[in-house]
Amino acid sequence: MKLELKHLAPYLPYGLQMSCETMNGLETFKWTLLPNTIEEVLSFKNKPILRPLSELTNEIEINREKFVPIKEIKKAEAFKKWNEGVNEHIGIEYILTSLYPCYLEYWMVEKLLQWHFDIYDLIKNDLAIDINTLDQ
Questions:
Q1: Between β-strands 46-50 and 65-67, what pairing exists: parallel, antiparallel or unpaired?
Q2: For residue range 4-63, what is the model confidence (pLDDT) as tens digits?
Q3: Residue 1 exposed, middle or buried by CB count within 10 Å (0-12, 13-18, 19+)
Q4: Torsion-angle region of residue 25: left (phi > 0), alpha (psi -120 to 50) or beta?
Q5: Which of 4, 49, 83, 127 could anchor a disulfide with 17, C-beta 3.0 to 4.6 Å?
Q6: What is the 3-state secondary structure (H, E, C) of the chain?
Q7: Which of 1, 54, 42, 52 is nearest to 18 (CA)?
């Protein structure tokens, strides 16, 4: 598996941070991915900085606001309607952390992208950096 445009493009509207690998190893400096830099990103050893899906039940901070992502999803009016149609034995945590695609609605995927969650398993495939491994 290699990092491709299809992995980066969905994050563009949400200010995805990137990290750059240099001759000295991985630099921890961050920069924001812009549409006109995608080709450059793909031709060098740049990696997006993402959150693992296991963080859905933990408190995270975005723009100085702290929240638990799974709780925010459950608060949404659309969730209540969606939840009525889901098998009771399959919890939202399982669906989101395993990304069982036949159960997800687009608004959920959009939230995961907005919060920079790794929906493509890029961290596991060494194509992205786990945000928790960087010095904050």
A1: unpaired
A2: 888 888 988 888 888 876 656 555 556 677 666 667 666 677 889 999 988 988 999 998
A3: exposed
A4: left
A5: 49
A6: CCCCHHHHHHHHHHCCEEEEEECCEEEEEEEECCHHHHHHHHHCCEEEEEECHHHHHCCEEECCEEECHHHHHHHCHHHHHHHHCCCCCCCHHHHHHHCCCCCCCHHHHHHHHHCCECCCCCCCCCCCEEHHHCCC
A7: 42
Between strands 17-22 and 25-32, the pairing is: antiparallel
Nearest-angstrom CA–CA distance, 96 and 115: 13
Are 72 and 110 a contacting pair, CB within 8 Å? no
Which residue carries 């598996």 as its tokens?
1
Single out the residue of 96, 103, 47, 89 nearest to residue 68, CA to CA. Answer: 96
Please name the residue that has the structure tokens 């920069």.
31
